[in-house]
Design a protein that fits this description.
This protein is of the alpha+beta class. It is built from 11 helices and 11 strands. The strands form 4 sheets. Strands 5-6-7-8 form a 4-stranded antiparallel beta sheet, with no helix packed on it. It is extended.
Length: 463
């Protein structure tokens, strides 16, 4: 029964709840679509389509005189921002158990850092595939909450079930994780039979969820944006400007031919091998629009500089002729380095939380051995310096025991040695060859600086 107050109907509570949920669902869908647009732009899939949309007239005709610009500036900016996992961190583990790929994990975390900078909130999930630990990055999902609005107690996300028949579309499935349940649902929301888990129970100890939420930017709500929106805005403006510049170059060079004093049925044939014949009193001329390319280039640069500076990046154009030193690069990128310090603190927490989830998944899958204790050490950011300064710094660090000669060789060729022992053997072999050639006087070849007294050539190694 519906009652009325001041001639307005008083809706039942269920109706209001359904309307609120419907509105939230619409907002969530629009939010995910915007994130998907960012991902497509980052991968370069929709940039030309976005540019083409600004050159459509009311009749739906798109310009086809020049190619629509589709330059991808977002990828470059996001890669430069992601400095935490730029180099592989060390964990103080001599050997990982069979089935745990440290390099695979590093590449996954590198990609996760970039996507978190791009679109914002996302999930990291360890999973076992073919007896090995692997990882999923989930950005389109539904979180459910109890008391804490920032920590989900259940997660549901969509996947496409593989189909061997190429004539059939992939079947959409939903994966549900909660404290009590782990189930695969069909498109109608019905649980599918899983012979490995017939009761659809959560296999993890303590009802834990195998997810870690990543949020780089602080906020009041669970969902937060990354840095991709202003980058896409600037990228779109630059692509539109580049397309207009291409049009300007074409019409400035070719011009627009205008004929006066002739009838509509008069045929005029143009060509380098043709003589144009006009009736008496008729004129034929090419009118070229003014093309201010210098101002257009300045505008494009201003758009790029403004977008990058707002996220702590500096840009150097190739015609500047300036070759900054290492210290100058540090000063120019000081804001970026300070932001990296904040990111390191957050990713350290994310990395530790993910490792705890990995242990739970490893245990639930009954993989051989166990994951060892570890501590994370992120690599520091280094800027290029002149060779003389680099040699002086290495000599100073060697003399004070701050590094080992094996560290220097491995840093020069990270992929060339599987262990410090291999690097040490190579150094000894090089020294033997040097001594055998009569150059063992203690002077560095090609350098006026004498070689310092070497500290112990071995060190305790992490990982």
């Amino acid at each position: 029964m519906i009652t009325f107050i001041n001639t307005l109907p008083r809706l039942p509570r269920e109706w209001l709840r359904d309307m609120t949920l419907l509105q939230k669902a619409k907002h969530h869908q629009a939010f995910m679509q915007a994130r998907g647009t960012l991902l497509d732009a980052y991968e370069g899939n929709n940039l030309e389509t976005i540019t083409r949309g600004f050159f459509t007239n009311p009749k739906g005709v798109v310009q086809s005189s020049v190619p629509n610009a589709k330059q991808n500036l977002i990828d470059r900016a996001i890669r430069r921002m992601a400095l935490v996992y730029k180099r592989q961190p060390t964990y103080g583990v001599a050997a990982w158990p069979e089935g745990y790929g440290a390099n695979r994990r590093w590449l996954f975390m590198k990609g996760a850092e970039r996507l978190a900078n791009l679109i914002g909130t996302l999930l990291l999930k360890p999973v076992v595939r073919q007896g090995r630990l692997d990882y999923d990055l989930i950005w389109d999902y539904l979180p459910f909450f109890d008391d804490d609005p920032l920590r989900p107690t259940a997660i549901m996300y969509q996947v496409a079930a593989p189909s061997a028949d190429p004539s059939r579309d992939a079947e959409i499935e939903w994966v549900l994780w909660s404290r009590e349940q782990h189930a695969i649902l069909d498109i109608h929301g019905r649980p599918k039979h899983n012979p490995d888990n017939p009761d659809n129970v959560n296999p993890l100890t303590g009802g834990e969820l195998p997810f870690v939420t990543v949020n780089l930017r602080p906020g009041r709500e669970y969902w937060r944006w990354g840095y991709g929106q202003p980058l896409l805005d600037a990228n779109t403006a630059i692509n539109v400007a580049l397309t207009e510049m291409r049009l300007g170059v074409r019409y400035s060079m070719m011009g627009q031919w205008v004929v006066t004093g002739v009838g509509d049925d008069t045929k005029i044939v143009q060509g380098v091998d043709q003589t144009i014949k006009l009736p008496a009193g008729a004129t034929l001329e090419a009118i070229a629009p003014p093309a201010r390319m210098g101002e257009a280039v300045a505008y494009v640069r201003a758009e790029l500089e403004n977008a990058l500076q707002n996220i702590g990046l500096s840009v150097q154009f190739g015609d500047s002729g300036d070759q900054p030193s290492g210290e100058c690069l540090k000063i120019r990128n000081l804001e970026l380095l300070e932001r990296r310090e904040d990111d390191v603190a957050l990713w350290r927490q994310v990395d530790e939380e993910l490792y705890e989830k990995e242990r739970l998944v490893w245990q639930a899958a009954n993989l051989p051995g166990e994951l060892p204790d570890r501590r994370i050490n992120f690599a520091e950011v280094e800027f290029p310096v002149p060779p003389r300064e680099e040699r002086a710094r290495h000599d100073w660090e060697l003399q004070r025991g701050l590094t080992a000669i094996t560290d220097l060789l491995i840093a020069r060729n990270p992929d060339g040695f599987g262990s410090v022992e291999e690097a040490l053997a190579q150094i000894k072999a090089n020294l033997a060859l040097t001594s055998g050639s009569g150059s063992g006087s203690g002077e560095s070849r090609g350098d006026s600086h004498p070689e310092p007294a070497r500290p112990e050539l071995s060190r305790k190694v992490e990982g």
